[in-house]
């Protein structure tokens, strides 16, 4: 099993929306991927409430059956569309992929 975890810091405003509005849109777009991408076993998106200097604004936790499924997810049109939106509203991104 592969675990794919991403943290994003968002711009204070982007695309005529606040960071909070964009965080909710990211959550909607990513959670909508559930059931539509082969090999994606679990997807969960959290929005930070602590708002400290060390906090990310949005976290993605996802599980894939194997590396090939993660690779397919990366190029799947639904994920590509969500990633394009996120790219327009984020200021920083940290990712980790690991295998159990």
List the helices and strands and how they pair.
Blueprint: E1 2-10, E2 13-14, E3 17-18, H1 19-31, E4 40-47, E5 58-64, H2 67-75, H3 77-89, E6 90-99
Antiparallel strand pairs: 1-5, 1-6, 2-3, 4-5
What would you note in describing this structure?
It is a single chain. This protein has 100 residues and is an alpha+beta fold. The protein is built from 3 helices and 6 strands, in the order E-E-E-H-E-E-H-H-E. The chain has one domain (2-99): Alpha-Beta Plaits (2-Layer Sandwich). Helix 1 (19-31) packs antiparallel against helix 3. The N and C termini lie close together (5 Å).
Helical percent range? Answer: 25-40%
| SSE order | EEEHEEHHE
In total, the number of strands is 6
CATH topology name: Alpha-Beta Plaits
Taking all Cα atoms into account, the compactness measure Rg is 13 Å
Largest sheet: 4 strands, antiparallel
Q: Terminal Cα separation, in Å?
A: 5 Å
Count of helical stretches? 3
**What form results from the Cα inertia axes?**
globular
Residue runs with pLDDT of under 50 for 5 or more positions:
none
Identify the CATH architecture. 2-Layer Sandwich
Determine and state the CATH class. Alpha Beta
- Please state how the strands of the largest beta sheet are arranged side by side: 4-5-1-6
Q: Structural class, judged by helices and strands?
A: alpha+beta
| Overall number of domains | 1
Mean pLDDT: 97
Strand content range: 35-45%
